[in-house]
Each structure stands twice: as structure tokens, then as C-alpha cells.
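Justification of resources, computational component.

The compute hours requested in this renewal are based largely on the per-chain cost of generating structure records like the one below. Each record pairs the submitted sequence with a full C-alpha cell output. That output is archived, and it is also reused by downstream analysis tasks.
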Amino acid sequence: MNPTKRNYRASFILDNRGKEDSIDQIIEGVKKEIAAVQGDVTAVESIGKKDFVRVTDKKFTGASYVHVNFSAPVEGPAQLKERLRLNQNVYRTFVQSA
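The structure output for this chain reads:
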């Protein structure tokens, strides 16, 4: 491993309502975004569709969850969140150090 990179685990809630993209296509797009911030994806774990505990939109009660392990520079998680902020397919993003 490169000493300038750290390991991270990101959790994504994916939203494909009304879109033709499958969950796998959305995951590939997320992997491209990680690569764009000099990140290397090490593992992808699809959790599947789960219902939300607290529903904020009655028309959107659940979504697909995905965990992605990756290594990236220290500024990588902040850049990734900013890049995914405008992505309509990613509903929520949570990145933590692994």
C-alpha cells in the first residue's frame, strides 16, 4: 500500500427510482468517482434493499445499501462527497476510516 493513502469504508444509499440505471450500473459509476479522486476500490458489498427507520418522504420508504472499501489520499473522502453531492443516483454517503 502506498504510505500516502489511507483505508476507508464508505456506505452509500442508492436511489434508482424512475431511472433506467440498475444498481450495478450505479455502483460502477460510484467506483469511477472513487478512481477520479485517486482512490483504489478494494471491495464492494451490496447489502440489498432495506426500509428506512425514519421516513422523510412517504414516496421513498427504502433503498439499496452498498458498502465500498477503498484506499485514497487524506483529502479523498471530502472530494468524493463533493463529487457525489450532485449525483441524483446517490441518496446518502457516509465515509469512515477503516
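The beta strands are 5-14, 40-51, 62-73, 90-97. Helices lie at 23-36, 76-85.
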